[in-house]
Specification:
Chain lengths: ~325, ~350
């Protein structure tokens, strides 16, 4: 089925921006200039982009430790995000949060998060606020397979289902929680099937097929916006690299497995399909690649040159006045 | 604050309703009701706070007035309800999350300490987190170790949290109203044994600023700092101490964060002696913090070692004989304070 005009190129641009952002962040990290440590989203771009393409600016997203992709897809600029990864003053959190604490109220981004499951609760809570206020805003909570065996998953989904909250729970099942294979972490490895426990829809999609993610997430978002309650969307995917930058990711995964998943690269898949179906030309995609490359290089230059906050601000913002 | 009276004005004011007495629980209901009428962003959720009106009647009548959307019973899911409260606060609401028993706040502690207290700071001030976590601590009628604890010192330990600790109906109302106009996470801790006490609460609106201690009784020989139910026990103990000629000044901090150290330091400069009575444990407790503050800032004003009278370091026991021994009693306060000035009572 032909997507609406411009959709394929728009989704493609979103994914390439995340891919290039993450590869640049890795490069800066390896140069030793970046503080902390980062969890990159390479390989999973279709999920953030496919889901967020269904959202309005005033909808909400609660994210995870692997949250750069969600932040960019929800509308945080590459400059603002990269500067935050550098702990720099013009980062989206003023350098106080860093990679795992990206925040931006103007686009409804309720934070990446250093703790695995609280984003589920924060997303559901934003949806509760929308419901109590009588707004038609929708919230999305992204989380990995590592979150679903934690009690917060149960409490969040149960409350959201019981109260019919306008929230979409997106599980990015990349098969490993740090190094723990999912089948060793649970007996029931179908995350979507757990939706039945809460009497809400559970849907499994190919998380490396951005058009499928976009379509299924779109149905769930519209359902939530109509007041029909939450959906659990399980996106099957894979991270190309280790859990965090510096983890080779090879002690618990085979080279063959990694290589097989790289062949399912969501960016190349969309591009090849779009060209084959004549939705867009190779030239259009090349132009996007070049434009994004400039945006990311600009973001990197900006972020690396951006100063860290002055120490006389260290005690600012502990409280709101 | 417009025409709103300050606490001292209202307390001192000889108004027509000077004798209006209501309970500690009713004072909290009044505060929440008035603020919910004023501010549509406030909603209230917790276990049994809807039609039942709260385990301690602390939400009586609110569900009937505001309905189930804004006064929302929750399942037994302290972490979930707290986490949702934080998310709702980020999205522009001002939720009250009633944990009911302070002991169960431990189920939600990570959300409070790692999320609620940090987000304003780590978002560079972009996100406010106006969530109220309400719970009742302390022992009452032998409720045993899972329903009797006085867990507040660790909230005072954490930057970004405010902690209110009312001991009277007047303070419950004034502090709750201030809480519901504060954009920060506030831990609002009542005492189970105080819900039925009555006290003067004026009809007209008033607010009690955070960080302003109350001098419950003036005195010139000993400064005694007490919180929650211990304020009342200290007041009773003082009646006997004064009969023996021992003059005690009782200070109730009313909020632990922000903390009014100046009132204590001023008093210690006058009395030269400091006693802290706390229903929580001594180790790393509020009493330790107060003692450290006075030792650091007023050591040379002291004529005697700082005395801490705290719950003894054991889990709360069921048997009344044991638990009454563990928790500071009026008798224990009398004898230990008297000993500080060389008297045996």
């Amino acid at each position: 089925m032909k997507p609406p005009n411009g959709l394929a190129t728009s989704l493609y641009r979103g994914m390439v921006e995340i891919r290039e952002f993450e590869l640049k962040a890795k490069e800066i990290f390896r140069s030793g200039k970046m503080p902390g440590f980062i969890h990159v989203y390479v390989g999973e771009e279709a999920i953030a982009v496919g889901v967020c393409a269904n959202l309005r600016t005033d909808d909400y997203v609660a994210s995870t430790h692997r949250g750069h992709g969600h932040a960019l897809a929800k509308g945080i600029s590459a400059r603002s995000a990269m500067a935050e990864l550098m702990g720099a003053v013009d980062g989206c959190s003023g350098g106080r949060g860093g990679t795992m604490h990206l925040y931006e109220p103007s686009v409804g981004f309720l934070g990446s998060n250093g703790v695995v499951p609280p984003g589920i609760l924060i997303g559901a809570g934003a949806a509760l606020s929308a419901k109590v206020r009588g707004s038609d805003q929708v919230a999305v909570a992204f989380f990995g397979d590592g979150a679903v065996n934690n009690g917060a998953f149960h409490e969040g989904l149960n409350l959201a289902a019981t109260w019919n909250l306008p929230v979409l729970f997106v599980c990015e099942n990349n098969l490993y929680a740090t190094e723990m294979p999912f089948e060793q972490a649970t007996k029931n490895t179908s995350v979507a099937s757990r939706a039945a426990a809460y009497k809400i829809p559970g849907v499994t999609v190919d998380g490396n097929d951005v058009l499928e993610v976009y379509a299924k997430a779109g149905e769930a978002v519209e359902r939530a916006r109509r007041g029909e309650g939450p959906t659990l969307l399980e996106c099957l995917t894979y991270r190309w690299f280790g859990h965090h930058e510096g983890d080779p990711g090879t002690s618990y995964r085979t080279k063959e497995e990694v290589a097989a998943w790289k062949k399912k690269d969501p960016i190349q898949r969309l591009r090849e399909k779009a060209v084959a179906e004549s939705w867009a030309t190779a030239g259009e995609f090349n132009d996007i690649d070049n434009e994004v490359s400039r945006v990311i290089q600009d973001a990197a230059t900006f972020a690396v040159g951006n100063p860290q906050p002055a120490v006389n601000t260290a005690l600012d913002h502990v409280f709101s006045n | 604050m417009g025409g709103v009276k300050t606490a001292s004005q209202a307390e001192a004011g000889q108004t027509a309703d000077q004798q209006r007495l209501i309970t500690y629980a009713e004072a909290g209901v009044e505060a929440v009701r008035e603020e919910m009428r004023r501010d549509p962003s406030i909603f209230y959720m917790g276990q049994g706070i809807g039609p039942r009106g709260g385990n301690f009647q602390q939400s009586r009548g609110l569900w009937a007035e505001f309905g189930g959307e804004r006064v929302r019973d929750t399942p037994i899911a302290e972490r979930g309800q707290t986490g949702l409260g934080i998310g709702a606060a980020l999205a522009g609401s001002h939720p009250i999350v009633d944990i009911v028993f302070l002991d169960f706040v431990l189920e939600a502690i990570c959300e409070i300490i790692q999320q609620a207290s940090t987000i304003h700071y780590i978002s560079d001030g972009k996100f406010k987190v106006p969530v109220v976590v309400r719970a009742a601590g302390g022992g009452i009628r032998s409720t045993g170790p899972h329903h009797s604890h006085t867990f507040y010192s660790f909230f005072m330990h954490i930057p970004g949290l405010k902690v209110a600790l009312p001991s009277t109906p007047y303070d419950v109302k004034g502090l709750m109203k201030t809480t519901l106009r504060d954009d920060n996470p506030v831990i609002f801790i009542e005492h189970k044994a105080l819900y039925n006490i009555k006290g003067h609460v004026p009809e007209e609106e008033y607010l009690i600023p955070f960080g302003q201690a109350a001098v419950r009784k003036p005195g010139d020989q000993i400064t005694l700092v007490a919180m929650g139910q211990m304020v009342h026990r200290a007041m009773q103990a003082t009646v006997r101490l004064e009969q023996e000629g021992i003059s005690v000044e009782i200070i109730d901090p009313r909020t632990l964060a922000p903390f009014d150290k100046d009132t204590i330091l001023t008093s210690v400069a006058k009395t030269g002696r400091l006693v802290i009575v706390d229903e929580a444990y001594a180790a790393c407790g509020v009493s330790a913090e107060i003692a450290a503050t006075v030792a650091s800032e007023a050591l040379y004003e002291l004529d005697a070692p700082i005395l801490r009278i705290c719950t003894l370091p054991a889990p709360h026991a069921f048997s009344p004989s044991l638990d009454n021994y563990l928790v500071p009693s009026v008798d224990r306060i009398v004898s230990e304070v008297a000993a500080l000035v060389g008297k045996k009572l």
